[in-house]
Automatic annotation (TrEMBL):
This is Heavy-metal-associated domain-containing protein. The lineage of its organism: Bacteria, Bacillati, Actinomycetota, Actinomycetes, Propionibacteriales. GO terms for biological process: copper ion transport. InterPro entries: Cu-bd (IPR000428), Heavy-metal-associated_CS (IPR017969), HMA_dom (IPR006121), HMA_dom_sf (IPR036163). Keywords: Metal-binding. Signal peptide: none annotated. Gene3D superfamilies: 3.30.70.100.
Length: 68
């Protein structure tokens, strides 16, 4: 069963930021869908395997932003 979780990411200010975060999170094992919303600074991820904070934070950090 997939699960969907919404996270808050600070520091994203443009569409390129959004694309970078979406790309990094999309590379995590199990991730099926990623929706990054610039206006709200939120990232909604649907994953087939549980996504712990450490994995999401590593991806966000790799993209150059900060997981709230
Ligand atoms: Mo451009 Mo979005 O530096 O950070 S990619 S504003």
């Amino acid at each position: 069963m997939s699960e969907t979780t919404t996270w808050t990411v600070t520091g994203m200010t443009c569409g390129h930021c959004v694309a970078s975060v979406a790309e990094e999170i999309g590379e995590l094992d199990g991730v099926e869908q990623v929706d990054v919303v610039l206006a709200t600074g939120t990232v909604t991820v649907t994953s087939a395997t549980p996504l712990d904070r450490e994995r999401v934070e590593a991806a966000v950090t790799e993209a150059g932003y900060v997981l709230a």
